[in-house]
Amino acid sequence: MACQQFDQVADYLEMPAAQRDRIKYPKRSMIVALPIQLDNGLVRVFSGYRVQHHLTLGPTKGGLRYHPDVALGEVAALAMWMSWKCALTGLPYGGAKGGIACDPRNMSDGELERLTRRFTQEMIPFIGPQVDIMAPDVGTSEQTMAWMMDSYSMHMGYATPSIVTGKPVGIGGSLGRREATGRGVAYLVSRAMDTLGITASQSTAVVQGFGNVGSVAAHSLAKYGVRVIGVSDVKGGVVNLKGLDIEALDQYAREHRTLLGFPGADAISNDDLLTTRCDILVPAAMERQITAANAGRIQCRILAEAANGPTTPEADALIAQKPEIFVIPDILCNAGGVVVSYFEWVQDLQSFFWTESEVMDKLFRILEGAFTQTLALARKEAIPMRLAALSLGVKRVQEGKRLRGLFP
Ligand code: NAD
Questions:
Q1: pLDDT digits 0-9 by tens, 155-182
Q2: Which fold has domain 11-161?
């Protein structure tokens, strides 16, 4: 998907063949074997991955995912998207992504801590505050980042908070980082509503995925006055056309580790949830959820791609035939996370910390700029929002490589 999208953008930009591979191929791709002792005394070897897409504009930056399906190809695609996202928002980073093929829901805290520390140790030759900085993604959390920061700091001999972002505030995390992605999604949805003349208090939203991004996006949309009528997690969803109480859902999900059985709502499958009629559809779970099989049945006015890569290229082509659907493409929609990660890194490097309102203010200013530029280009050239966002990002990386020249 990522390569296909890149080829489309390169064609659109009429990029010379000689530059294409140089911009497309990841700079470094690593696979490491991670043996750890399980709680039952046995030793198991997990596979860990890290892909650093380009180092032209600064260190690489990107999340770390713990999920059974993690593989090198997925990580490489996510790293490439991170590059365009960082460039679109003007951050001095290349993209990266990492992951470990494991099922964190069936592992103890002790096992997860040993796995995280072992992965950090294996990565030490390839990471650093000026080389590659990790952050949480699916299946990882502030705690994962705290273990990474501690492992790296023990190796260096001094506290190095700038090695990761998305860590707890008590050890150099930034206020507002945990909420940044979801709040950014809601901010961009509100900008899209302004553009389309939709009134928040008369609109409805459906959110797939109720983790960090999905739950905060649901909360923030509700704060803008939107009625959230459906949400889901990996096990399925719940729907109530009169609106869901997001606070109560949060508490229920924390207590039961699922949304299923939430009182005052009907059960719904993930597939049916995605095709429920609503004004705002927010896929905030995994990639490839909107496919050729269900894209034709999607009934929303704004598709806010909070997850990375939720829409396949085939589905994209079907959605392009429905001009009534306004797409906020993933590299724009979920950029709030990496923008505040950048703020966290800057604060750590300077040991000078900002208030939450300073963080949010600066975040919304950057998102506003990226949204306005993307929309202006999409309208001027009559191209889809995704192509506009990607081409802005790719062009900045292309320009950086041109200015630096070819070494040696
Ligand atoms: P998370 O692990 O906190 O939550 C993921 C949620 O999705 C959970 O509720 C899980 O049950 C659900 N889920 C998993 N598989 C599903 C499936 N097949 N169908 C329906 N629901 C499913 O992860 P997160 O950090 O919220 O990340 C969600 C998405 O947002 C990912 O695509 C991630 O790459 C992207 N993203 C995250 C951040 C961030 O700051 N955390 C930033 C940018 C993009």
A1: 999 999 999 999 999 999 999 999 999 9
A2: Rossmann fold (3.40.50)
CATH match of 178-328 with 3.50.50.60: no
Closest CA to 160 of 116, 130, 199: 130
Find the catalytic residue in 24, 97, 167, 223.
97
pTM above 0.85, yes or no: yes
The protein residue with its alpha carbon nearest to ligand 1, atom 33, reads 307
Annotation says 395 is catalytic: no
Pocket of ligand 1, beta carbon within 6 A: 136-139, 181, 208-214, 232-234, 270, 284-286, 306-308, 334, 337
94-100/28-37 β-pairing: unpaired
Compute the distance between CA of residue 150 and CA of residue 137 in angstroms, rounded to an integer: 19
* CA 308 to centroid of ligand 1, rounded, Å: 9
**Confidence tier at 264 by pLDDT (50, 70, 90):** confident
Q: Which two tokens stand for residue 28?
A: 């470094």
Domain ranges of the chain: 11-161, 178-328
Residue in 107, 138, 238 to alter for ligand 1 test, most ligand atoms within 8 A of Cβ: 138
